[in-house]
């Protein structure tokens, strides 16, 4: 059965949610969205799921493997059990949107122009990037009357007006700013965030969802990451650390007092904290401290077509998708015996049905966890790569180091503040993003 790619929110409400092991987690009670006004692309952020114990939690949309006619299947059984709380800039479809009044300007529905229409339901569509976005809105043509079926019209989202990030009234400044961040790169959000007063910056950090905040924090120096982490409550801070890449989370925890770092590690999900603990065991100046323990790792029996499908995962960073590492089971790091690697360019030249075990590069040496940063820099310069395998002395794959992580550590500590083209005379430089208007102080 083909997975559903279009669905109305009313259909999702009440649907059973199952983990990858088919165990029931709960039922959908609402859908959280980030609304952008004037018909701009607005994403669904996640589901409000009521668990069997009646506790309501937030489940990010990227955790969903597929939506089936009768149930929703998750890609992972790891979910945050923190009670759901609505944040600034977020709305829920069933609670905030359905039943609210809007105006439309669809030229195909001119009989609706100039009228205040009530929303009956909202349609979501899955894009090629795996995001779920609002595509259409069902509105009542006439107010429903008792005993009669209401007349509905369906309006494209691009022609709907009257809903803002702050709700259906006047837009809230913080909510609108968070909504503007939706289409921006995390690095650009990080740059703009630090043009704001500290109080507003911390307020935005509190209101961003966990995944988005983790992406933004990874683009900041560790001291500023620690500053934002202090603005969060303890449980939320642990959740954000879980969403960060393990190497970035390890770097951030290394900046905190030992007692606080240990407490946060204890609060994190053990599956998420284990790779972070391993990275923190390496000396900060070694390749082991720079690597990510979650590269693209497959067995030699994987076909080229399957490997390319894994490499297309939009959640996989570009540098890591450039290389497939081939090992004996297990494929979770530390893996079984490391056999070699295959560059993405090689895969593109091979027949789809070929096995990747026959495409290995036999001459490419690995890096080792205790190699220093200069060795890694020489490695990338010598072999013209952006990603390389990191092994232990027993030839097990521990992870992969990417050239962007290496550069981040080799550049001066203040390179982000100094900007893309620093002025040596002024000690500063041109920012990566032109700052927006300064908030009033």
Automatic annotation (TrEMBL):
InterPro entries listed in its UniProt record: CBS_dom, CBS_dom_sf, Mg_transptr_MgtE_intracell_dom, MgtE_N_sf, MgtE_transporter, PRC_barrel-like_sf, SH3_actinomycetes
GO cellular component, as recorded: membrane
One Pfam family it belongs to: SH3_actinomycetes
GO MF, any single term: magnesium ion transmembrane transporter activity
Keywords recorded for this protein, A-Z: CBS domain
PANTHER family recorded: MAGNESIUM TRANSPORTER MGTE
Name of the molecule in the record: Magnesium transporter
